[in-house]
Amino acid sequence: MLKAIPIAALCLCTYSVWAQEIHEVTMVDLAIPGEDYAPIWLDSGFVMVSVRESSSAIDFRDAESGKPLSDLYWVPFAKERAGQPVLFSSMLTTPVNEGPASFDRSGSTICYTRNLVLPKKLSNLKGAAAQLGLFMSSLNDGQWSEPIPFPFNSAKYGVMHPALSADGRTLIFASNMTGGAGGMDLFRSLLKDGSWSVPEPLANTLNSTANEVYPQFQPDGSLIFASDREGGKGKLDLYRTELHEGKWTRPEALPEPINGPANDHGYSSSADGRRALFASDRTGTDRIHHSVRTIPKFRECTPQQPNNYCYHFTSKPLAVTAALPLDHVWDLGDGTRINSLTVDHCYTEPGNYHVRSLLVDRRTGQTFHTLVSHELELRDHFQAFVAAPDTVRTGRSVEFHSDLSNLPGWVSSEYHWDLGDGTLTKGPSAVHQFKTAGTYEVRLDALAVVDASGTIQNKCNTKPIVVIDRFKEHEDMAVAAVYQDALGRSHEFNYQELPFDASEIRMDQLDDATFAVQLFATRERMSLDDPRFAEIKRFYPVIERFDPVTSTYIYLVGEAKSMEEMYVVYKKVKDLQFMDAEVFALEEEKLIDLSQLDLASLEELNNKKLRTNAIHFAYKSAALDSTSSPVLEQIDHLLKQHKELMLVIEAHTDAIGGTAYNVDLSQARAQTVVEQLASRGVDSERLIAVGHGKNQPIATNKTEQGRAQNRRVEFRMIVKGEEQAFQQKAR
After folding, report:
1. Which CATH number applies to 391-472: 3.30.360.10, 3.30.1490.100, 2.60.40.10, 3.40.47.10?
2. Helix axes 659-679, 629-641, angle to 10 degrees
3. What mean pLDDT value characterizes the chain?
4. pLDDT value, residue 487
5. What fold is seen in the domain 17-294?
6. pLDDT at 725 over 80
7. pLDDT surpassing 80 at residue 598
8. How far apart, in Å, do the first and last CA atoms of the chain sit?
9. Distance (Å, rounded) from C-alpha 266 to C-alpha 319?
10. CA–CA distance from 603 to each of 425, 515, 644 (Å)?
11. How far apart are CA 286 and CA 280, in angstroms?
12. Percent of the chain having pLDDT more than 90?
């Protein structure tokens, strides 16, 4: 068996810096040293190979030298401290050498190295009998099964150092069998239909004329192995490769101090990639070493930023308030309502606040119209926040906390403190006494693994602490009290302007808006014959609108260009107990002309409506007139040009006839258009038929000219993924 590489003793050795990361390497203190190598993480500890004196009843020794044979041991390992090694399994311990092992992700399958035969006398363990092979066992009810030999073991060559993939279906191992590049090489075998395939050597970019040994899969899927090829730091060095598009990348040597002038091998990384175990004989004997990836502390520290929750809100005065009993009110979303055009307000903590500028009926206190609505998201600065007093006295304990740090996604962060007077400590909080008056820059450095690749990042912030003599006759210095945060600390701020959404109808656009009174806004379509509409329909027709952006059905009454005209409608609606009703500003339909279709991009077409009266039906019929063909041909061309485009065919009628009759008629007409386009080769899955009946007139139904405008077909264009709302509407 190739000589392995160990750890032990009571020493702590830290090595050098590589790039932006530091690899802190220490020997694992096993108290009683042995020759220990090939560690691999398992559960709350690791399994290793060891040549050591055993206190177990099972004790096998070399017949000639009297030294112990190598066995598998399990070592508990927590908080960078190792427990007492114990034999891994009595079932897997035999009167021969047991060598490096590997496990699948579940830890229930083991593949390990062992001498091929079990001689009656250990003195016979030589020649073919001493050859190494691989054996496999499964864990059942807490017991390991009888080991099964790997089918390609041989007395002619060695098969050793297994690396089992997470799913247990790929096995990479070291061997001097034929087919390699020279020396010991890495081979691969795959488990297919319950049988292992004939081993094949890995690419020559991995194998060399030197020795490649001790491979091990890492949690991120990469492979790390040892090699004494040219170009390394010393004897055996550790190299990393990963499988990319079916090919192994060129191996890269691990940095110092992991690799050095000694033999370094048997690398096993923790699940987060932050810690690793490996073996090295850098101290003269094979010992297990522990490596921790970190970064330099207190680098690129920036001054701590106070969190500003203070805003300035302002509304444009509207003439309507002079004519009607309406007040401008700011609803600030935290329970605060202020009757004023201009408001300065500080929130007490971060969060999401629905801020609205309202016109409120002075007599009832109910909302008449929402001028502006904004979702205000307050988040603390992305920083490691030092929570501590600004001023302290000498000789008195002061507490420093990191619990207000805002580091989203940084799970299990480490916190390191530099308290400015030479004191360094670690943890989420610190308690300290300053001995000398002065100003101290306290630094808080947060470290965390922040992505799946194991990348370590840090965030360092500083806060000045003024320390005054406890015996001086003056008060602790205070900060100007304009705003107090959630912990009661006072801060002075400039007020920020509220950032309004561009999608909102702005107050300076109201002159061109059309208004109606909104009764309901719901994701579930309502029938206009719903009993809740019965009383209001005695006074006003109810209009249904659909907002494809929010997939919301909006039910309105009244329509006027003037907000003042809507006040009478608003009062009547309130009297009829529609308590949530308010004046609603209607946005203009986004229409597009036939002549624009060929020139428009997919983005420009999305959620646009083509309104045309060029689609003709016979009176009381759903049969298309032949004059509709040119329009349908143009629509057909558009859909073939933009494969991601879907089409909602919306048919409307005039007001002659009953509601149910007109809905059925309009639905049939929309379906006829669908069938006509399908007959031209358009996929019917891209077409949605919707019949609105007489509920959405665009002109008066009192004249024939107006009724003709209302008898129309509209084509709404949407991209795939937005069709669900319209399919619901079509039911």
Report:
1. 2.60.40.10
2. 60
3. 84
4. 56
5. Tachylectin-2; Chain A (2.115.10)
6. no
7. no
8. 75
9. 81
10. 56, 29, 11
11. 5
12. 45
Closest CA to 662 of 614, 712, 706, 627: 712
Location of structure tokens 């579940």: 106
The structural domains of the chain, with segments of one domain joined by +, span 17-294, 391-472, 513-586, 591-729
Residue showing tokens 């759903």: 622
> Which tokens sit at 35?
């020759």
Q: How far is residue 655 from each of residues 261, 528, 556, 699, 704, measured CA to CA in Å? A: 93, 14, 18, 11, 11
- Lowest-pLDDT choice from 270-279, 290-299, 473-482, 492-501: 473-482
Contact call for residues 696 and 611 (beta carbons, < 8 A)? no
- For residue 477, give the 3-state DSSP assignment: coil
357's tokens: 């500028």
Query: What tokens were used for 480?
Result: 């100007």
Q: How far is the C-alpha of 189 from the C-alpha of 198, rounded, in Å?
A: 6
Q: Is the dihedral of CA 328, 334, 336, 341 positive or negative?
A: negative
Would you state the CATH architecture of domain 513-586? 2-Layer Sandwich (3.30)
Residue with tokens 């298309």: 624
- Which tokens hold the place of 440? 């101290």
Take residue 686 and report the two structure tokens written for it.
Answer: 């891209």
- CA-based nearest residue to 280, from 296, 312, 301, 257: 257
Within 10 angstroms of residue 104's Cβ, the number of other Cβ atoms is: 17
Q: Are strands 496-497 and 310-314 parallel, antiparallel or unpaired?
A: parallel
CATH number of 591-729: 3.30.1330.60
Any idea how long the chain is? 731
Whether residue 662 contacts residue 701, with contact meaning beta carbons closer than 8 Å, is answered with no
Alpha carbon of 451 to those of 254, 409, 454, 457, 460: distances in Å?
Answer: 20, 9, 6, 10, 19
Q: What angle do CA 691, 694, 697 make, to 5 degrees?
A: 110
DSSP state of 341: S
Helices and strands in the chain, H and E counts: 7, 52
Q: In what order do the strands lie in the sheet with 351-361?
A: 337-339, 326-331, 351-361, 367-378, 582-586, 514-522, 552-560, 542-547
For residue 111, the tally of other CB atoms under 10 A from its CB is 22
- pLDDT confidence tier of residue 249, bands split at 50, 70 and 90: very high
Alpha carbon distance 701, 56 (integer Å): 100
Kindly tell me if the per-residue pLDDT of 14 is higher than 60. no
Which residues lie closer than 8 Å to 402 by C-beta, 6 or more apart? Answer: 384, 385, 386, 387, 415, 428, 429, 444, 446
Beta strand pairing status for 645-652 and 687-693? parallel
Structure tokens at 88: 């891994």
Cβ-contact 253, 239 below 8 angstroms: yes
pTM: 0.52
| Residue among 189, 188, 205 at smallest CA distance from 197 | 189
- pLDDT tens digits, one per residue of 509-562: 566 678 899 998 998 888 888 999 999 989 988 888 777 667 788 899 988 878
Q: Decide if pLDDT at 1 tops 60.
A: no
Q: Worst-scoring range by mean pLDDT, 198-207, 313-322, 332-341?
A: 313-322
The DSSP code sequence of 422-440 is S-EEESSEEEEE--S-EEE
- In sequence order, the β-bridge partners of residue 431 are 399
